[in-house]
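Ticket #4471: structure output looks truncated?

Reporter: J.K.
Steps to reproduce: submitted the chain below (191 residues) through the standard prediction queue, then opened the result file.
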Amino acid sequence: MIANLVLQTDAADEAEKLVDELVGLYLEVHADEGEFYSEDRYRRQLGAHRERIGWQLVTAVVDGEMVGYIYGFPLPPQTRWWEGVRGDVPAGFTDENGRRTFAISELLVRANWRRLGVARTLHDRLLSGRTEQRATLLVRPDNTIAQRAYDSWGWTQQARLRPSWENAPEFLVLTTDLPRPPASSAAGARE
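Returned output as attached by the reporter:
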């Protein structure tokens, strides 16, 4: 692992000061990938997601430079996350209650910091101690490098999904079961 890597965990209000940097890194990572990856759309997405109860961000910084980040939030009962799901999923797969599924919306690492363990470190930090039963994320079918990483981290493909957003690509829906925290940790978290 990188010796001087610093991880920072922030809630939505704490992340306000980072929005421009988050957007800049998103645009850098998705340069030349099409209209869907526009600054305007991502700013709207990030703003809407930051309003979700339980939204959490983890950033990775090396020598003052943000080299990657990940964020997610628990899916509420009336979530739109599953709209556009395609394929055979088990009955109740898309049922949510605000405590069942934690959705990872973005996991981004600058090109020159990839394959050094940054993404896995961000992933593990965000999911550590979660009390939901499972996590989900979406990955493009052509992003085979990410798919291989998620597979090695224990994620399983469940279906495909095409969001109703303009110019949205089709995604693979992945899930992973989250370890249940010890009863004493879960009780302490509710206090």
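Triage note (M.O.): checked the attachment and the full token line is present. The CA atoms of residues 104 and 137 lie 5 Å apart.
Status: closed, working as intended.
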